Amino acid sequence: MAQEAIEAPLPGKIVRVEVTVGNTVEEGGVICIIEAMKMENPIISPVKASVIEVAVSPGQVVKTGEKI
What is the pLDDT of residue 38? Predict the structure, then answer.
């Protein structure tokens, strides 16, 4: 089974995490919300997948390319 990490497409602060380990995320499902420049940006799953790790938590600041 292939594993693919979702990376932050922009720098910002994690406002909300919408998934937990063990969840199944549908293609197009929201993984988390990143606030950047006072705008909330949903991070979308590109594929249907099972969550095996959540590398961020609310309040955490992430850089572009950081695993979420």
Answer: 93
| Exposure string over 29-50, b if 16+ CB within 10 A, otherwise e | bebbbbebeeeebebebeeebe
pTM of the predicted model over 0.70 = yes
Where in the sequence is the domain holding 50, given as residue range(s)?
12-62
pLDDT in tens, 18-52: 999 999 999 999 999 999 999 999 999 999 999 99
Look up residue 3 and give its amino acid.
Answer: Q
Residues 1, 4: Cα–Cα separation, whole Å = 10
Domain tally for the chain? 1
Pick the closest to residue 13 from 44, 35, 43 (CA basis): 35
